[in-house]
Amino acid sequence: RRRRRRRRRMADLWGDLLDVHDAAAEKKKTEDELKKFSVDEKLSDIERAAHFLKGANDMQVRHVACNLAALFRDHGRAVHDKLGDQVMRLLQKCSADVSVCVAESLLEVLEGRYMKTDADATVCTLGLTMAAIRESRRDTEVLDAWLQVLAAIVPTLAPAVLETDVCELALRKGELDATVESRVACCSILGAIAPRLTKEAIERRFLAKAMAMCQDTDYEVRICMCNQLGAISRAVGPDAAEKVVLPEVLELVKDEERSVRLAAYQCVVELLLGNATSSPDVVKEHSSNGRTSLDSSRS
Questions:
Q1: Neighbouring residues of 165: CB distance < 8 A, sequence distance ≥ 6
Q2: Which residues contact 265 (CB under 8 A, 6 or more apart)?
Q3: Which residues contact 116 (CB under 8 A, 6 or more apart)?
Q4: How far is it, in rounded angstroms, from Cα 246 to Cα 145?
């Protein structure tokens, strides 16, 4: 009986020791976590952001991504000069939602005109935007977020940059073996840059590619390209629109997918309202056929 009581006391003592050990380990863990979150109060906003980006704590990285716009608003181009490389590396490995946060921050910078000059805005946003679009292949949310940023940059870019760098990015996204999401992005980019380029530049660089995208095997690509044809038609002028663009639109009016036919019919209306072709009677005739196709698909 004494032996059993002794064993019981030893077990209780061992349990107490384990509790003390666990408490000490938990305390050390808490102290280590606090140390990770602790930042020298003397650091500037930009230095603190750089410190967060160097670490592996998701919460701190997300904080920087979501607050980039405020940093740019308060400190201007210095943010890009000191953090640009780190943000670029972040975009190569971060999750989709963090990438979207960065895109939304840069869009706010552009729409809020936080930079002193358009040149500064371009330097701070174009490189990151091009890289993010280049690397994004399947995530529609990420691509859409960065395409919005690019659309906001386009009006500030020189035509030479649009014709070379941006157009080249679009053409690569539109390669035959690219994903559907990438090919849709190609269409969006071509439509965004067309109004800033000359007829000759468009014909030289991507008009044939844009027309080929109208016959893409995926209906989403055909719809997106159809939605850009109004902008392209206005940019190339009525003669080229009638000879090159209009035949593709009229083919799309007869597409097997109802959603494509609807987009094509809306494009016809846009061409009529914008006087983008020199033969409105031809367009009206085929728009009537488009209505017939849409009506028959409902029944």
A1: 130
A2: 253, 287, 290, 291, 294
A3: 76, 77
A4: 31
Reported as a single tens digit per residue, the pLDDT across 46-105 is: 999 998 898 768 888 999 999 999 999 999 999 999 999 999 999 999 999 999 999 999
256 CB contacts (<8 Å, ≥6 apart)?
Answer: none
Cβ neighbours of residue 248 closer than 8 Å, sequence gap 6 or more: 211, 214, 215, 229
Cα–Cα distances in angstroms (integers) from residue 270 to residues 120, 184, 191, in the given order: 36, 21, 14
Sign of CA dihedral 209, 215, 216, 221: positive
Q: CA 54 to CA 83: how far, in whole Å?
A: 10
Express each pLDDT in 252-298 by its tens digit: 999 999 999 999 999 988 888 765 554 555 555 555 554 444 454 44
Q: Report DSSP state, residue 34.
A: H
How distant is the alpha carbon of residue 140 from its chain centre? 8
Could you tell me the pTM of the whole model? 0.80
Helix, strand, coil percent content, the chain, rounded in steps of 5: 80, 0, 20
